[in-house]
Amino acid sequence: EDQVTQSPEALRLQEGESSSLNCSYTVSGLRGLFWYRQDPGKGPEFLFTLYSAGEEKEKERLKATLTKKESFLHITAPKPEDSATYLCAVQAFGDYKLSFGAGTTVTVRA
Amino acid sequence: DTGVSQDPRHKITKRGQNVTFRCDPISEHNRLYWYRQTLGQGPEFLTYFQNEAQLEKSRLLSDRFSAERPKGSFSTLEIQRTEQGDSAMYLCASSFAGNEQFFGPGTRLTVL
């Protein structure tokens, strides 16, 4: 069974204080690793898909990287509007569903 | 707005009642998924449609749960004889083939 573990559970940052979120995974043949952002009371918003080890994707202050066992989401010089829960999910080859971690809740203080 | 839409956004019901939720996917997407999310957890897969065919159901989906996608367009998720443990956010997502899944805003169910 696919397993996704995210750490830390919560992260409090000062505005401008860069940090990284970790997503460790176990999957029988990784088709893709997905990062989503979720604001309270809303559905997850798609951020990135990573397909192979060594791949990197960037969007504004966010950068996602992938190795064979884990993925990192780097937040550079965060702003209060980056406050959200960040979810990591994996999809195995031949499968359709996403298996999610519990998320990391990021709070950025001005 | 061309995103995934869900209706209703909130539903409060009494234990034992039946409820039905609707999801309208992005128009060109042929795949539709239902997930359930409880507080502090990530979404958990419930079921998946490719066009009108329901291809996979999670073991989490008890006999009280049924989903349909007539004509491969919108989908409905029905819960019969609701229980307090059914209280959760029910999320719908859609994708084109095996690409990224885009989620709707969810339906928050509260069972009293």
Give structural notes.
By secondary structure, chain A is mainly beta. Chain A is built from no helices and eleven strands. In chain A, the strands form two sheets. In chain A, strands 2, 4, 5, 9, 10 and 11 form a six-stranded mixed sheet that branches. Chain A starts with a strand and ends with a strand. Chain B is mainly β and 112 residues long. Chain B is built from no helices and eleven strands. Chain B has strands at residues 5-7, 10-13, 19-24, 31-37, 44-50, 53-57, 65-68, 75-79, 88-95, 102-103, 107-111. In chain B, the strands form two sheets. In chain B, strands 2, 4, 5, 6, 9, 10 and 11 form a seven-stranded mixed sheet that branches. In chain B, a hairpin with a 6-residue loop joins strand 7 and strand 8. Chain B is globular, with a radius of gyration of 13 Å. The A-B interface holds A 4, 31, 34, 36, 41-46, 49, 87, 89, 91, 96-103 and B 4, 6, 31, 33, 35, 40-45, 48, 50, 55-56, 58, 91, 93, 98, 100-106, 108.
Report the β-strand fraction of chain A as a percent range. Answer: over 45%
* Straight-line distance between termini of chain A: 41 Å
* First and last CA, distance of chain B: 33 Å
pLDDT < 50 stretches of chain B: none
Work out the helix count of chain A. Answer: 0
* Biggest sheet features of chain B: 7 strands, mixed
The SSE order of chain A reads: EEEEEEEEEEE
Q: What's the gyration radius of chain A in Å?
A: 13 Å
Task: Work out the number of β strands of chain B.
Answer: 11
Quaternary state of the chains: heterodimer
Approximately how much helix is present in the residues of chain A? Answer: under 10%
Question: What gross morphology of chain A would you assign?
Answer: globular
Mean residue pLDDT of chain A: 96
How helix-rich are the residues of chain B, as a percent range? under 10%
Radius of gyration of chain B, whole Å: 13 Å
Give a short account of the largest sheet of chain A: 6 strands, mixed
Instruction: Supply the helix-strand structural class of chain B.
Output: mainly beta
Shape of chain B: globular
**What percent strand of chain B?**
over 45%
Give the beta-strand count of chain A.
Answer: 11
